[in-house]
Amino acid sequence: MVPELRLVNDIARQFGHLPDEAAADAVADHVRRFWDPRMRAHLLALADAGDLDPLPAAAAARLR
Amino acid sequence: MTLLKEPDFGTPARPGEATVTVEVDGLPVAVPPGTSVMRASAQAGVNIPKLCATDSLEAFGSCRLCVVEIDGRKGTPASCTTPVADGMKIRTQSPHLERLRRGVMELYISDHPLDCLTCPANGDCELQDMAGTVGLREVRYGYEGANHLDAPTDTSNPYFDFDESKCIACSRCVRACDEVQGTLALTIANRGFESKVAPGPTSFLDSECVSCGACVQACPTATLQEKSVVELGMPSRTVITTCAYCGVGCSFKAELRGTELVRMVPHKDGGANEGHSCVKGRFAFGYATHPDRVLNPMVRESITDPWREVSWEEAISTVASGFRGIQDRYGAGAIGAISSSRCTNEEVWVVQKMVRAAFGNNNVDTCARVCHSPTGYGLKQTFGESAGTQDFKSVALADVIMVIGANPTDGHPVFASRMKRRLREGAQLIVVDPRRIDLVRSPHVEAAHHLQLTPGTNVAIVNALAHVVVTEGLVSEDFVAERCEGYEEWAAFIAGPENSPEAVERITGVPAASVRAAARLYASAPNGAIYYGLGVTEHSQGSTMVMGLANLAMATGNVGRDGVGVNPLRGQNNVQGSCDMGSFPHELPGYRHVSDDVVRGQFESRWDVSILPEPGLRIPNMFDAAIDGSFRGLFVHGEDIAQSDPNLQHVTAALSAMELVVVQDLFLNETAKFAHVFLPGASFLEKDGTFTNAERRINRVRAVMPAKTGKAEWEIVSEIATAMGYPMAYSHPSEIMDEIAAMTPTFAGVSFEALDKLGSIQWPCNASAPEGTPIMHVDEFTRGRGKFVRTAFVATEERTTRRFPLVLTTGRILSQYNVGAQTRRTGNVAWHPEDLLELHPHDASERGIEDGALVTLASRVGETTLRATISDRMPVGVVYTTFHHPITGANVVTTEHSDWATNCPEYKVTAVQVSLSAPVPAGVD
Q1: Which residues of A are less than 8 Å from B363 in CB distance?
Q2: For chain A, which residues make up each domain, given as ranges?
Q3: Closest Cα to residue B808, out of B887, B862, B885?
Q4: pLDDT tens digits for B539-580?
Q5: Closest-CA residue to B280 (of B820, B831, B817)
Q6: Contact residues, chain B, for A17 at CB < 8 Å
Q7: How many percent of chain B have pLDDT more than 70?
Q8: Are A17 and B595 an interchain contact pair (Cβ–Cβ within 8 Å)?
Q9: Which of B624, B792, B900 sits opposite A10 (nearest CB)?
């Protein structure tokens, strides 16, 4: 599995209890604070390829 | 300085105000109630002769040398066992007392070898001193009677001898083992004339002795003597410094002859250890002068080429031009560095500065990534500061101690001795650990509860504990109302039925009744303290678990005073410091995010350089980026990532993919096999700087001997930065600390001068706390109000299967340290020559494995071979090993799973299978 896919899924699982919008904000904020830009670019590429589950995809949209 | 001999007051100090005034030989002195006459006299400047007394031990009253006369009292009481009373008038000298003392000494000397001039303790022998003090001139009994002069010497221990012929049976060693160390390995065997010190019915090496050295320290003669003193003679000067092993950070007196280190003696004034030590710090320093050390820089074009020794100038030029070349070809972000928690704060500071200012990126990380990064995240979120809350002394006031995912007697032995002392005094113990660690049941210590959970279910357990607190009315409501926020939302979550002990029992394997009883015990204690280790952090929910512990402590009001708190037991000596120094890729020093424009601006102004506002790569991300080709150069400072990091095939593939790997270390370690430049490092005995231990205590590290490589490590790093075009120059490490203090609010009051004056300082140290902060969050949390954070349990993705039905968890052992690079090069191999796989008798039987058999340990990422030891310490289905020996390569089998928040590897949960290794054919080695 692509590292960023595993990592973002791990993060998303932790915020799955939140309402959709809040969860996407939380995942995006975490990625923004802790991920190197090239990792974020990989994440966006995964989103573009449609490889993300709904919550990571919503978070990725907030990082554009 | 010349040899430092600390004063010995004979008996321990008593707490409280000096309200009792006595007169000693006409000299008035005021002392706290309960102080002995001996100690009061010493404080008045009158040293009463003694042999069985020393101030690290409670009075024993056996030698009868310390007799005194007290007005209004009959006879000659022993001053060590007699407490002071107000108005007491004491005489320590009289013809009668002198006769008594000489008589006692005559008896001792009549059965003692008269070999003072050739004795290794000559000049450092209290028996010799006392003979002089009492004016012994004859021994009327002669020397021909029954005696112990032919008693054997036990030389089995690698570090000290036990010469029974010199023993005066004062019991100081036995009491030191009992009271200071808490192992109770020694005893006085037999009675009367046959009495003798014995480590049980065996030799010292084969006994339960843990070689902490407390007995050697306490011995008043040459009976228990360091082999190094026997071989080299008495030291003549002292340098006070700090141990470079675990996160306890013990202070030591390095005792030398010239520049030759004779022995390390624990420093009584050391705040962390107060005169105690463990086998590593006390004795295992021989690696510093081991012939394996590399002392000259080396380079090679390819990792398949032989090394070539070069000058420092060539080595530094090779590094600088190599890194710049990579950046020219692949971009500024194509290089980075890993700093070390074994290095000083000053060294770590210059590494992160080199990365941010000279490399021009934030690709700096530290080995804390793979141990306590979740502590930094979790405690910052909840309390507002990435650090433990207490000083070590605090445990002496704890009423209930919860140890979670830590094995202090092996990993943090000197702190464990403090803890065991408190447990012997009656504090209750809760252990949460898959493995039955020694603390669960050992002499005079027994856990009230051992919650033997399935690895990977920590968060379920901490939630269940909190569930009981909330639903049974055990919340400290005043504390929560006055000092915390987010409680209502958290309480509603934690009270949910999914968090009840009954509901999580099927997940954790821990009976609900035990969880309920443990929660009640912790919550109802006047002071409840939590101590945790890597068994908390090295999980896919490591950060969540840290926040769960913080929630639990806040809910029960166990933060902000002595005896309570949430306390990470840090693995390496300077984990706290390396994190404080801005070694994480998202944080500038002082745990301030790189995106903070104000803070970043301060550094940009001071360093005259632009700093990127984006986080850099963490260690695992560096490996991923190396494999995808965007990361090509790495400076590895004092770490052995090719042994210590998980999924080693992945690590070595990443290292192999890089164009320039620079390793700075004492030895050609596993990582150096993939390096193109090797820069020889300095041992802690050659360093000048500071370490910060797990209680935030900043201690001085002082050079005991000149750097064997000719350069300090901070100098080398500064020269690389300078060669890359960013001038970095310091003339002394104190200048680096001055820069740290100027740029880091929690270190504002720290300087070498202040440390030399105060001995040590616990940060935060600033205008409002000029001498430091032993206990944090006293009146309010660093973030204002403590924040309750929802901690839903999410199972790890690492699952057992039919193919890999067992769970492997890893840990460490007392005599070895981390990857073993240091301890494997010392006498400590006598105790642990190889890593062993512990497995339950049931699991062994099912696989036809006998104790001592070679077995294959396999996971979905790799396999290794090691020897099995069958033990019911582990529950059925869980196996355990250590990672001290590269030949075992335990991390060959650990996986890529990591903590969701910090990427800290999940070392503690790996699905594995164990099988008998194929027998080695006859005739094959």
Answers
A1: 36
A2: 3-62
A3: B862
A4: 999 999 999 999 999 999 999 999 999 999 998 999 999 999
A5: B817
A6: 493, 790, 792
A7: 99
A8: no
A9: B900
Interface of A with B in 4-63 (CB under 8 A): 6-7, 10-11, 13-14, 16-17, 30, 33-39
DSSP state of B178: I
Contact flag A34-B363 (C-beta cutoff 8 Å): no
d(CA B433, CA B208): 23
Task: Detail the DSSP E strand segments found in B444-527.
Answer: 445-446, 449-451, 484-485
The amino acid present at B207, given as its one-letter code, is S
A-chain CB neighbours of B615 within 8 Å are: 33-36
Contacts of B630 in chain A (CB under 8 A): 38
Quick check: helix, strand or coil at residue B664? Answer: strand
Q: Distance from A52 to chain B by nearest Cα, in Å?
A: 17
pTM of the model: 0.96
* ipTM associated with this complex: 0.97
Q: Is the pLDDT of residue B421 over 90?
A: yes
Q: Does the pLDDT at position B886 exceed 90?
A: no
Reduced to 3 states (helix: H, G, I; strand: E, B; else coil), residue B36 is strand
**Separation of alpha carbons B747 and B588, rounded Å:** 14
Q: What are phi and psi of B482, to 5 degrees?
A: -80, -30
B898–A34 C-beta distance less than 8 A: no
* DSSP per position, B543-604: HHHHHHHHHHHHHTT--SSTT--EEE--SBTTHHHHHHTT-STTEETTTEETT-HHHHHHHH
Q: Which residues of B527-544 are buried (b: 16+ CB within 10 A; e: fewer)?
A: bbbbbbbbbbbbbbbbbb
What pLDDT digit, counting tens, does each position of B182-235 carry? 999 999 999 999 999 999 999 999 999 999 999 999 999 999 999 999 999 999
B333, B493, B593: residue with CB nearest A38: B333
